[in-house]
Amino acid sequence: MPKVIEVHPENPQARLLQQAAQILHDGGIAAVPTDSSYALVCHLDDKAAAEKLRRIREVDDKHHLTLLCRDLSELASYARVDNKQYRLLKLGTPGPFTFILEATKEVPRRVSHPSRRTIGLRVPEHKMLQELLDIFGQPLLSTTLIAPGETEPMNDPDEIRERFAGQVQAVVDAGACPMQPTTVVDLTGELPLLGRVGRGDPARLGLRAE
C-alpha cells in the first residue's frame, strides 16, 4: 500500500514533506493535493517514473503532462515566453490555470508533446504543494488524478490509497481540495485559446468562455 503522509494544511511539517520529496527523488509516484484537484506527480528527469505516470492514467504521449513550478521565473526556464504571454501568465499565477507553451531544451523531449514540442506549465496556489516544491528543489511532472474510465478527478486520500495500491508510492494528505481540474489555456498560437474551462475563471485572464 502507498505510504500516507498526513500534513497540516496551513503549516505542513517540513520533516514529513521531506519524506515525500525523498520518495519522488527515488523514482516514486505520489498523489498530492493542489488548488484544483489531486494530482499524480513524479521526478521530471526520471524516464521510468514518467512512463509509469502515463500508464496509471492510461494516456498516450500526445496527452499533455504538466510541470508544477514554484514561481514564474522557474516556469520561464522550461518554456519560451514572450512579453505578451508573460503578462497573461502573471494574471493567472499562482492559481488553478495550466498554460500550454513551447518547451525549452530543459524539458526532456520524451515528456513534451511529440509533434508540437509543447508542455503544460503551472504555478499552483496551494501551501503544502508550494512547500513540497521548495523542498524538492525543482519542478514536478504531473497529471490530474482521474482514474481510468472516469471523468471526474479524485479527491479522497483514502479512496486514492485503495484505488492505486501497488501503483503509487505515497499519498500526501493535507485535507480535502477542490474536485475541479485546472482551466487550460493554450498560448502557442496568435491568440490565447481556452482548451478546458475548470476551476480558474477565464475572466481573470481577460478571456471569455464560449
Notes on the protein architecture:
This protein is an alpha/beta fold. The protein has one domain: DHBP synthase (Alpha-Beta Complex). The protein is 27% helix and 20% strand. It has six helices and ten strands; from the N terminus they run E-H-E-E-H-E-H-H-E-E-H-E-H-E-E-E. The protein has helices at residues 14-25, 47-57, 72-78, 83-92, 127-136, 157-163, and strands at residues 3-6, 30-32, 39-43, 66-68, 97-102, 118-122, 140-144, 170-173, 183-186, 193-196. Strands 1-8-2-3-7-4-6-5-9-10 form a ten-stranded mixed β-sheet, with helices on both faces. The longest helix has 12 residues, at 14-25. It is globular, with a radius of gyration of 16 Å. The model has no long low-confidence stretch (mean pLDDT 92).
Largest sheet: 10 strands, mixed
Mean pLDDT score: 92
Kindly provide the radius of gyration, computed on alpha-carbon positions and rounded to a whole number of angstroms. 16 Å
Count of individual beta strands: 10
For the termini, the CA-CA separation is 43 Å
Task: Please count the helical segments.
Answer: 6
CATH-scheme architecture: Alpha-Beta Complex
CATH class division:
Alpha Beta
How does the overall form come out from the CA principal axes? globular
Helix content: 25-40%
Strand order of the largest sheet: 1-8-2-3-7-4-6-5-9-10
| Uncertain segments | none
The named CATH superfamily: DHBP synthase
How many structural domains? 1
Strand content: 15-25%
